[in-house]
């Protein structure tokens, strides 16, 4: 059958893929050796690089000893730019790069928007908790430690469970998406990839702790933004324009079932392999006029709600975000989270608006199962740049995996070192013992997660399934933790009941919804949007309702937040970041007002105002889509500049100090430092 499109009488860009049921077709574009080079080579490279930077800073810069406090808190003196960079790095999962393009492939322009906005507001609102932490528990090492100090051991064990669930789920998604993509691009066995990827994280995290994680995160973030800008440039400037992509997207949804069945036809078996929803061809179910170019998408909105609810759990219950708040300077905590959230928005929004929409515009033969496994970005990049495109996506993905994986590793090590070892096994633990336990846990957790992800693969769970499921498991812990930091009446007993009841109700509702909708309970029926939405909403709403009722009417407390920090003790007298200057109550109140106003306003803009304003547009016109693309490009470029330059500008003095010390050590010539005018003797003052 001859396929033609009336687009300036040109042959359609997708005609060469007629009859293919897979873009990669079982034959990876890169050699297996490239897979090993990236997984092992980059891991070793960053381990060496970050270890050297930490050593140089320790020897020539801050000259501070790596105590257990410093290992797990980075000295509590991280500035705004680096805090923002770390937040971007931690929040850029494999899912951010892969799942965001999957929802663009499935729902059109609404997918990237709901992925980005639905996962940005949690970071913005967590800034409120971050500054509250600096006010009431500046000495804390973990969120579970704060729970223990306020609500006691029963609540401590409860929320420790939910924290570990969050860490395991996030790390599972990293490895599921990463290993599937490594296998598709290089042919490297996914089981081997799952086992080897954590080693790139283990080495430098165990060596340098949280500071090494932060330094590596900055480098990873810069590389991720560099690849993102490259891909946006290729799609909308070099190879195509917004008008061309618009025309192709319009053409894709105008094909009827007969055309799609003929296009996706297996000549050897003499049968079509096309089914509605399995390939990008024909109208989009649930979208206005079946178009990809509309925010009026039922499934897109449903995904957005799931995304919002589920991601509250993976921010508020994930120790790595509390750890970043602990590590930040009080003056930087609020601003760092706000800036990090705004810059992070660009990654899923700009990347998926380019690669995700291009996959459907070009009608690449990507099946729904391949899209769910995260293969949309590598397929489009390979189409545009060949092997070089595949390599860039592989590097970008590896950066996301190791940066978030490192944060999760140090988070788990802190929970075990402080909340299990110090609390229940050795209350008199020394700093050296805490440091040893932290490093051992980092290694063991990496090995455990490599094996656990293989088990998930064998169960048939992919990245998309786990991503939608996470809110069902950890959503019930969100509101009790928020109340713990902001509400004097919050009851510890109520928090325990709310968390466990919310989990139980969510699991029951999730399973019942699958049975009602499909009449059967399988991995597939449990993974539909409607079923996952039921479980996610029940988890967070039932828990919040139970905790409010119990705290307000059954067991109201009158907690004095001034007492909270007195119940948390340091292991060593390492008070960096805990001086009177950092704990100025006036400055902390000002910072709290600053982040509260801006966090709430931006949340309203991203999940209410922006979508509402796009409703009158209906199906986007060509100029409207061009403006939408312009926003995505500008946001991507602006975020890349800020997140790259600001940390360097803020740390210029420290960088100069390290470079001066290094030059002096190499050449033997000590560089002159600027004289401090206070060191000069006053006129008439005699030297003794």
Automatic annotation (TrEMBL):
InterPro entries: DUR, Na/Glc_symporter_sf, Na/solute_symporter. Its main location: membrane. The chain crosses the membrane at residues 34-56, 77-93, 113-133, 154-176, 188-206, 218-239, 300-317, 337-368, 388-421, 433-457, 463-482, 494-513, 533-550, 599-619, 625-649. CDD domains: SLC5sbd_DUR3 (cd11476). The keyword rRNA-binding does not apply. It comes from the Eukaryota. Keywords: Membrane, Transmembrane, Transmembrane helix, Transport. Belongs to the sodium:solute symporter (SSF) (TC 2.A.21) family. This is Urea transporter. It comes from Entomoneis paludosa.
């Amino acid at each position: 059958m001859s396929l033609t499109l009336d687009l300036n009488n040109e042959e359609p860009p997708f005609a060469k893929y007629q009859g293919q049921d897979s873009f990669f077709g079982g034959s990876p574009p890169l050699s297996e050796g490239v897979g090993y080079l990236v997984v092992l080579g980059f891991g070793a490279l960053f381990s060496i690089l970050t270890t050297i930077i930490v050593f140089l800073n320790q020897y020539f810069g801050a000259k501070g000893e790596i105590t257990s406090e410093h290992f797990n808190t980075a000295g509590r003196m991280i500035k705004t730019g680096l805090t923002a960079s770390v937040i971007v790095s931690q929040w850029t999962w494999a899912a951010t790069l892969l799942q965001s393009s999957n929802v663009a492939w499935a729902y059109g322009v609404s997918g990237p928007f709901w992925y980005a906005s639905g996962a940005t507001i949690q970071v913005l609102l967590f800034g409120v908790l971050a500054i509250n932490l600096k006010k009431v528990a500046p000495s804390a090492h973990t969120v579970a430690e704060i729970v223990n100090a306020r609500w006691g051991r029963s609540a401590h064990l409860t929320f420790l469970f939910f924290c570990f669930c969050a860490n395991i789920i996030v790390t599972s998604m990293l490895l599921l998406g990463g290993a599937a993509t490594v296998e598709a691009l290089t042919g490297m066995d996914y089981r081997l990839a799952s086992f080897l990827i954590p080693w790139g994280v283990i080495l430098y995290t165990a060596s340098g702790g949280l500071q090494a994680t932060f330094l590596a995160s900055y480098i990873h973030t810069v590389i991720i933004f560099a690849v993102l800008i490259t891909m946006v440039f290729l799609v909308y400037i070099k190879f195509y324009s917004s008008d061309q992509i618009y025309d192709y997207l319009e053409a894709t949804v105008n094909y009827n079932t007969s055309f799609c069945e003929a296009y996706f036809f297996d000549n050897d078996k003499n049968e079509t392999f096309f089914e509605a929803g399995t390939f990008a061809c024909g109208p989009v179910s649930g979208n206005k006029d079946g178009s990809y170019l509309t925010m009026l998408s039922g499934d897109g909105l449903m995904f957005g709600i799931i995304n919002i609810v589920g991601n509250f759990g993976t921010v508020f219950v994930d120790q790595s975000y509390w750890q970043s708040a602990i590590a930040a300077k009080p003056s930087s905590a609020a601003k760092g989270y706000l800036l990090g959230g705004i810059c992070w928005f660009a990654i899923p929004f700009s990347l998926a608006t380019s690669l995700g929409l291009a996959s459907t515009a070009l009608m690449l033969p990507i099946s729904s199962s391949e899209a769910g496994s995260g293969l949309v970005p590598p397929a489009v990049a390979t189409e545009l740049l060949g092997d070089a495109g595949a390599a860039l996506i592989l590097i970008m993905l590896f950066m996301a995996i190791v940066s978030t994986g490192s944060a999760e590793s140090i988070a788990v090590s802190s929970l075990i070192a402080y909340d299990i070892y110090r609390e229940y096994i050795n209350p008199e633990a020394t700093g050296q013992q805490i440091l040893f336990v932290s490093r051992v846990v980092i290694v063991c957790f990496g090995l455990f997660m490599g094996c656990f992800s293989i088990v998930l693969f064998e169960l048939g769970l992919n990245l998309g399934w786990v991503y939608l499921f996470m809110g069902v498991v950890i959503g019930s812990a969100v509101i009790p933790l928020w109340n713990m930091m902001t509400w004097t009446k919050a009851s510890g007993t109520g928090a325990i009941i709310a968390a466990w009841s919310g989990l139980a109700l969510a699991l029951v509702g999730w399973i019942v919804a699958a049975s009602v909708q499909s009449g059967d309970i399988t991995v597939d029926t449990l993974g539909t949007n409607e079923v996952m939405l039921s479980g996610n909403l029940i988890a967070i709403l039932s828990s919040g309702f139970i905790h409010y009722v119990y705290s307000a009417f059954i067991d109201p407390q009158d907690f004095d937040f001034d007492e909270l920090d007195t119940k948390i003790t340091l292991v060593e007298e390492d008070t960096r970041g805990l001086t009177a200057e950092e704990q100025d109550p006036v400055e902390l109140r000002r910072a709290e007002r600053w982040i509260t106003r801006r966090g709430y306003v931006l949340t309203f803009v991203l999940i209410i105002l922006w979508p509402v304003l796009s409703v009158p547009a209906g199906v986007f016109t060509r100029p409207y889509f061009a403006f939408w693309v312009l926003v995505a490009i500008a946001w991507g470029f602006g975020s890349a500049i800020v997140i790259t330059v600001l940390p360097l500008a803020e740390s210029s003095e420290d960088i100069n100090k390290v470079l001066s010390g290094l030059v002096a050590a190499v050449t033997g010539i000590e560089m002159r430092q600027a004289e401090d005018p206070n060191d000069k003797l006053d006129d008439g003052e005699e030297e003794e």
